[in-house]
Automatic annotation (TrEMBL):
Primary location: membrane
Name of this chain's protein: TonB-dependent receptor
Record-linked Pfam families: Plug (PF07715), TonB_dep_Rec_b-barrel (PF00593)
Membrane topology term: Multi-pass membrane protein
Keyword Membrane: yes
Organism: Sphingomonas aliaeris
Ranges for domain TonB-dependent receptor-like beta-barrel: 288-736
Residue ranges of domain TonB-dependent receptor plug in the record: 122-229
Length: 775
């Protein structure tokens, strides 16, 4: 616990987070007892607060503009109560207009990803939020692939950092990254981070939270959000207080190489209340655990990630705010992370190393203007530039698995470059009577090139590649109105004009391709939310989405062809309950049904070469649930699961046995559960311990008899502990505590996986010891 000054002040450092989490942190750091019976504190966002402050002064800063206030019971005990009158929120809390109402104060506006700033209870759809505290206690690496391992609604391939594809609620097209647009759009704040291909694996340092908005989200987010939207929300620049944090850790793996991570953030107001900067930097090394006895090397799959972010915020007054920021990240993977069953559970034989490299740079400019009436103007402009290259060993194995190659060593290399430009401008307004609306337009330009070469080591020959350029313009509008008391309806529509033009890297052998294709789309939304009683509501939604087509390498070498757009229709019905007070149960459950037509998929042929095509149709039924129970103060239990039943139809799917005619990487059942306990040790320390268990069901690598290779069907459990004392947080996290040997992913090298013996094993038993300091 921070040292208390003689005047009763403490060193306080609380990041931008939820009010519930902030109150808990403040109690730890000051030794104050803070209680509340008000519902919904976990969905109220508060700004960063830091400095030498008394508990009362810190509470005043935290609660300013939230609609809540602190009542002092004595010098170190406080009760949080709702204001009788809702006041205008200060940044970064969303602004809310006030209006007379016999029903009492207006609900708190928190779901910013909805672009209408409506309350979670009124939001008519499934939403998952991972807060900063959960991210800090998660096992390494701290990226979206790791978030997916503890969030059943997310699925991820396991090719490695910078190469994994992320899926939401079983809307999965293929295990390989190619020309097809992603099924899940990833946003950094209000700016799109990528258009197609793999998740760039941004390390989640100095993040307020990660929101998963299940899809499709065609009306608000347009093309490429057929599975949903993942929004990474960084902590905002604090214009009032200087401060920062530094953290680091060491990870040891049974039978593998050690790893480390270090990161730090500093926030500096240059002119208090007007201009400030915030900078974050980190360096991470994930130790390898795969051996290659053929080359006589151990722990070959080491990876290194370095990154930095810089943000500038200006508040010139008059309701205006300017946010300018940029990030850069570089990933170097020394070798692939797969094994083969012939060699061993944690080993393989290959003739050369198979490295991977990627780098991403993002710049964004966000302008906002708020009026006292609740009207808001937002303009967000972004540019994302990504480069990647990887190399695979394409040498044929000798018969019988001998030690040396029977033919010269052959390599296959790919290089990709992407440039994404986006701009969105929208107006929105949210009123205390439950009415809200948003309207705007979006412009997008994406240029993506893929180049390939293959041949004898040192003498590769270029083979055909493609370049796609997509440009689109969209108009969208969505509104929510109260139809009858406690029942609100949401209607939305988006109109899009898009064109994709493609060119091969050199003249193909055939001319059966279309250089350009135009698309006109209308994507509507119909949804409702019905509040049954305080803290309990049911919701329903019907929405559509699509992905644009393009030019891609066809099956075989030296040919290209076009692939067409695919489309999806999803309906869902759900229930949401918010905890009423410091103890009790909160939950979210939903049923959904999807029809996915003309699915685009990035595939590989029997020679291991990639191609993209429209392959099949699918129907997907899903049941999902999240429960968070606090039976008594300090004790917390969580449970989350996803059950999916999908059926894929079409000529390619018919090549598989009936049980394997499934979408890739989507187990029928996945679940995670955890139990944690927290208690105060004296007046200066807070201790917490927890256990987490995860099960991932059986899935297949892909569609068709070539790819219907089984993977998954494993369970893991881990332990975590934390000690907070005087501003220092010490953590211990143990992952895969039973040292399981499950197969996360049945591919690592697409050029040789057709022998069907590749596995991507779980990282063996590993433990991370970390220390963090806030100032």
């Amino acid at each position: 616990m921070p040292v208390c000054a003689d005047d009763g002040r403490h060193t306080v450092s609380i990041p931008q987070t939820s009010l519930q989490a902030a109150l808990k942190m403040l109690g730890r750091q000051t030794g104050a007892d803070i209680i509340s019976t008000e519902p919904g504190l976990d969905i109220v966002h508060v700004p960063r607060v830091s400095g030498k402050l008394s508990p009362q002064a810190a509470l005043d800063r935290l609660l300013r503009g939230t609609g809540y206030h602190a009542i002092a019971i004595d010098a170190r005990s406080f009760r949080i109560a709702r204001d009788a009158i809702v006041v205008r929120a200060r940044r970064p809390v969303a602004k809310l207009a006030t209006a007379p109402s016999a029903a009492g104060p207006a609900p708190v506006i928190i779901v910013t990803a909805s672009k209408q700033r409506i309350s979670l209870l009124r939001y008519p759809g499934s939403l998952t939020t991972i807060d900063a505290g959960t991210l800090q206690l998660s096992a390494a690496p701290r990226d979206l692939a790791n978030v997916a391992r503890m969030t059943p609604v997310l699925q991820s391939t396991e090719l490695g950092p910078g190469r994994n594809k992320i899926f939401i609620r079983g809307i999965a097209d293929s295990s390989f990254a190619g020309a097809a647009q992603s099924t899940a759009s990833i946003y950094f704040g209000d700016v799109q981070l990528g258009y197609s291909g793999a998740d760039p694996a941004i390390r989640l340092y100095d993040m307020a939270n990660v929101e998963v908005l299940e899809g499709p989200q065609g009306t608000l987010y347009g093309t490429g959000s057929i599975g949903g939207v993942i929004r990474l929300t960084p902590n905002a620049v604090d214009l009032d207080q200087a401060g920062g944090s530094v953290e680091g850790g060491v990870t040891v793996t049974r039978g593998g190489a050690p790893g480390y991570d270090v990161g730090g953030t500093v926030n500096v107001p240059l002119d208090a209340g007007v201009i400030g900067v915030r900078a974050t930097a980190y360096s991470v090394r994930d130790g390898g655990y795969i051996d290659d006895p053929g080359r006589g090397v151990d722990n070959v799959n080491r990876s290194s990630t370095d990154g930095a972010r810089l943000a500038l915020r200006v508040d010139p007054g008059g309701g205006w705010q300017v946010d300018l920021s940029g990030l850069g990240q570089w990933i170097d993977v020394r070798d692939a992370q797969y094994a083969d069953r012939l060699t061993g559970p944690l080993a393989r034989r290959s003739y050369i190393a198979q490295p991977f490299h990627s780098d991403v740079a993002l710049g964004r400019l966000v302008l906002t203007k708020d009026w006292d009436s609740g009207l808001q103007l937002l303009s967000a402009t972004g540019v994302a530039n990504t480069h990647s290259n990887d190399l695979f060993d394409a040498t044929l194995r000798p018969a019988g698995g001998g030690e040396g190659p029977q033919t010269p060593i052959v390599t296959y290399q790919t290089e990709g470059a992407k440039l994404l430009l986006t701009h969105e401008m929208r107006m929105s307004r949210s009123l205390a009577n439950g009415t809200s609306w948003v309207a705007g337009f979006t412009l997008l330009s994406n240029r993506e090139s893929q180049n390939r070469s293959a041949g004898v080591l040192g003498m590769p020959m270029e083979i055909i590649g493609v370049t796609n350029v997509t440009r689109s313009a969209s108009l969208f509008a969505e509104g929510t109105v109260t139809v009858v008391p406690n029942v609100s309806a949401t209607l939305g529509i988006r109109g899009t004009l898009a064109r994709t033009d493609g060119e091969p890297s050199f003249r193909p052998r055939t001319d059966d391709f279309v250089r350009g294709r135009s698309t006109r789309r209308i994507d509507p939304t119909l949804a409702f939310s019905w509040r049954l009683r305080p803290g309990l509501a049911v919701f329903g939604r019907v929405q559509t989405g699509y992905r644009t087509g393009g030019l891609a390498v066809a099956s075989g070498i030296g040919r290209v062809r076009d692939f067409r757009l695919d489309r999806i229709l999803v309906g869902e019905l759900g229930l949401r309950r918010l905890r009423q007070g410091p103890t009790g149960l909160s939950l979210q459950a939903a049923l959904s049904y999807a029809r996915w037509k003309n699915i685009q998929a990035d595939l590989v042929n029997r020679r291991g070469l990639p191609y993209t095509d429209n392959i099949v149709d699918a129907r997907i039924q899903a049941v999902e649930g999240i429960a968070d129970w606090v039976p008594v103060r300090g004790l917390n239990g969580k449970l989350a699961f996803l059950y999916t039943h999908n059926r894929v139809t079409g000529p390619l799917a018919d090549q598989s046995v009936s049980a394997n005619r499934r979408l890739p990487d989507t187990p029928a059942f996945a679940g995670t559960g955890s139990v944690g306990y927290e208690w105060r040790a004296g007046n200066e320390s807070v201790l917490s311990v927890g256990v987490i268990a995860t099960y991932v069901g059986r899935s297949v690598l892909g569609t068709g008899d070539l790819l219907d290779i089984e993977q998954g069907d494993y369970a893991t459990f881990g332990l975590n502990a934390a000690w907070v004392r005087r501003g220092v947080t010490t953590t211990l996290t143990i992952d895969n505590a039973a040292d399981g040997r499950g197969n996360r992913f049945a591919s690592g090298n697409p050029l040789t996986f057709a022998v069907r013996d590749q596995t991507t094993p779980l990282r063996p038993l590993n433990a991370r010891f970390g220390v963090g300091l806030t100032f």
